[in-house]
Design a protein that fits this description.
Strand content: 15-25%
Strand order of the largest sheet: 1-6-5-2
Helix content: 25-40%
Number of strands: 6
Shape: globular
Structural class: alpha/beta
Radius of gyration: 18 Å
Low-confidence stretches: 6-16
Number of helices: 9
Mean pLDDT: 88
Distance between the termini: 52 Å
């Protein structure tokens, strides 16, 4: 029976090959979502170990943060762009969970990220989430929460205003686009807590700044940020 299952599994893989979400090559037995070559050679930042990193400096003077980290550098046309594309537009919630687990592994070795009380994903507007089918930042946050065994809050920070895409906007346009977009439903859920705010990509930081400011207004004790990628 086990031999038959293995043969059928191999046949299914031959007819419907699983591809690496980073480079698009066939995955071998034992590999899931990312091939071994990608796992070792993706452009890791190690920002979790260095609080004065470029991602953190993007928010200096704008948002008081305990620490800011991104797992990878983002480069157009490279593997990290493929990851983000699969995560946001190909329905790969499983990839979000995987990347969240990878972030969690890094945070376990990072002194600045000790004592986190609650994990909060950047919310999508309900209409956009219905179209996409899920919130990619939430899937990342779920992976981090599972890896760190820390509670996840998905309902207390909400997006109350639908915005246009940030993709082709400059820094100031992105900032203007995110004004009065987010709100906290229950401030007591965050009061005096160390909050980890999670998103997919940090570019200008406008979205994270807008979220972070309303969380600080809810009188959180400390704000830390984690994203999958940092776009230089």
């Amino acid at each position: 029976m086990m031999l038959l299952k293995r043969i059928l599994g191999d046949l299914f893989s031959l007819l419907f090959p699983s591809l690496c979400c980073g480079c698009g090559t066939d995955l071998y037995t034992g590999e899931q979502l990312l091939c071994t070559e990608c796992l070792y050679n993706l452009p890791y930042t190690d920002y979790h170990l260095h609080t004065e990193n470029r991602a953190a400096k993007q928010l200096w003077g704008r948002l008081p943060c305990n620490a800011v980290m991104s797992l990878f550098y983002f480069k157009k046309g490279a593997r990290t762009q493929n990851l983000i594309h699969n995560l946001k537009y190909k329905g790969r919630k499983d990839l979000g969970l995987k990347l969240g687990n990878m972030i969690a592994e890094k945070l376990l070795t990072a002194p600045a990220y000790t004592g986190i009380d609650i994990i909060v994903p950047v919310p999508l507007h309900k209409s956009r989430e219905r179209v996409r089918g899920y919130n990619q930042s939430c899937s990342i946050a779920e992976g981090i929460a599972a890896g760190l065994n820390i509670p996840l809050s998905t309902d207390d920070l909400v997006r109350i205003k639908k915005t246009s895409s940030q993709t082709k906007k400059g820094r100031y346009q992105r900032f203007e686009n995110m004004q009065s977009v987010f709100s906290v439903k229950d401030a007591w859920a965050f009061k005096d807590k160390h909050v980890l705010l999670v998103d997919d990509v940090l570019t200008t930081g406008a979205t994270l700044e807008a979220c972070g400011m309303v969380l600080l207004e809810a009188k959180i004790a400390k704000l830390s940020i984690a994203t999958v990628a940092y776009a230089e």
